[in-house]
Each structure stands twice: as structure tokens, then as C-alpha cells.
Amino acid sequence: MATYSSAPGKLISVIGDEDTCVGFLLGGIGEINKRHGPNFFVVNKDTTVHEIEDCFKRFSRRADIDIILITQNIADMIKHVLQLYKHTVPAVVEIPSKDRPFDAAKDTILIRATKMYTTEDLGL
């Protein structure tokens, strides 16, 4: 099992449509490591759910990745895998895509956090 820290050199990865991935790559998060491969995965209409699951599992096992960004519409496709994922690092963050607005009611992490705390804990 890999150990994680917030040491310099940790990466953000992204799983999303072409526009989302290109946007993050232009922002400087892209890296292609000879040993691990790229830290991004472009999903298109021909990408299978199995390929997305495999990519997520690969990213979640990499010791050099601290955050996995995934567009919510793609996260919905592998919701069964995300619900089983219990680690805090790499953190999984669902983000909106340009084609679909963000729906907080579907966010796996937000749902899990809501179940952990009562309204009293949150001061509501």
C-alpha cells in the first residue's frame, strides 16, 4: 500500500471530456510520466464504462496523485466504484462539465460528508 503526504511534486489528475481535460492541461496540470503514464484521461462517446473504471482505479493507486478531478456526468457513469472508494487521498472531487451544470445532490463526496455530520454538528 502506498503512503501519501502533501509533499511537493504531488499531482492533480483529471478524468473528463476533451474540453475539460484541455482546459486543465492548459492550466498546467498535465504530466506524462514514463512509469505511470499521463495524469489525465479524455472520455469521448466511444469510451467504455470499463475503461473509465480502470482509469479511476489506476489514478487512485498512484502515489504521485493527491487529487482526482472527475466531471460529474462521468462520475455518474462509475458511481458504483466511487461509492466503494473510502480513501481520503487521493481526494476525489466531482466538477461540472461545460455541457451539464453541477448537481450537489449527486456529488458522492458531499453525500458521504452529509451522512457523517448532523445538522447540529454543522451549526444549522
TrEMBL record:
Pfam families tied to this protein: ATP-synt_F
Report the superkingdom from the record: Eukaryota
Q: Does the keyword Ion transport apply?
A: yes
Quick check: keyword Ion transport in the entry? yes
Key words of the record? Hydrogen ion transport, Ion transport, Transport
- So where does this one cross the membrane? none
One GO cellular component, as annotated: proton-transporting V-type ATPase, V1 domain
SUPFAM superfamilies recorded: AtpF-like
Q: Which InterPro entries match?
A: ATPase_V1-cplx_f_g_su, ATPase_V1-cplx_fsu_euk, ATPase_V1_fsu_sf
Annotated GO MF terms: proton-transporting ATPase activity, rotational mechanism
Q: What does this protein do?
A: Subunit of the V1 complex of vacuolar(H+)-ATPase (V-ATPase), a multisubunit enzyme composed of a peripheral complex (V1) that hydrolyzes ATP and a membrane integral complex (V0) that translocates protons. V-ATPase is responsible for acidifying and maintaining the pH of intracellular compartments and in some cell types, is targeted to the plasma membrane, where it is responsible for acidifying the extracellular environment.
Q: Which family does it belong to?
A: Belongs to the V-ATPase F subunit family.
- Share what the entry says about its subunit structure, partners included: V-ATPase is a heteromultimeric enzyme made up of two complexes: the ATP-hydrolytic V1 complex and the proton translocation V0 complex. The V1 complex consists of three catalytic AB heterodimers that form a heterohexamer, three peripheral stalks each consisting of EG heterodimers, one central rotor including subunits D and F, and the regulatory subunits C and H. The proton translocation complex V0 consists of the proton transport subunit a, a ring of proteolipid subunits c9c'', rotary subunit d, subunits e and f, and the accessory subunits VhaAC45 and ATP6AP2.
Q: What is this protein called?
A: V-type proton ATPase subunit F
